[in-house]
Structure to design on (142 residues):
């Protein structure tokens, strides 16, 4: 009886430990996994030294829709466009004519590395002027 209890305790501990580890690991992202409303809540920045997270008040809001369009309040002059996800990279194309934000690449796209977790994702810019020390932005699902 003691062996059975000990075995069950070991199995339960292993399951709990494994589930905690999996929650901390990024998941494979596709367009359907980021649908909905997201709000920027933190930024991972550096002022010349080690990077650290800071809270963001009134951060950007992005809505991703099933038809692969999005709306965002990041730029007052253009608030919508199309998006896709390829190999954990978010690719956004704003739909306003003659809108050329500094964050876009030579193809007119704004791109990010995407790390998806259970209730948030982290975007790291890969187009436009990049942070020398690196920077990332955390968005929480609303």
């Amino acid at each position: 009886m003691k062996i059975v209890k000990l075995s069950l305790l070991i199995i339960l501990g292993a399951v709990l430990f494994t589930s905690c580890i999996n929650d901390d690991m990024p998941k494979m992202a596709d367009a359907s996994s980021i649908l909905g409303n997201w709000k920027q809540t933190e930024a991972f920045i550096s002022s010349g030294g080690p990077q650290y997270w800071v809270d963001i008040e009134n951060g950007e809001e992005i809505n991703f829709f099933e038809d692969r369009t999005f709306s965002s309040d990041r730029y007052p002059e253009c608030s919508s466009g199309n998006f896709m996800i390829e190999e954990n990279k978010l690719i956004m194309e704003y739909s306003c004519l003659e809108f050329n934000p500094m964050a876009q690449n030579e193809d007119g796209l704004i791109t990010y590395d995407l790390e998806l977790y259970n209730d948030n994702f982290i975007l790291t810019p890969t187009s436009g002027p990049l942070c020398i020390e690196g920077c990332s932005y955390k968005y929480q699902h609303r």
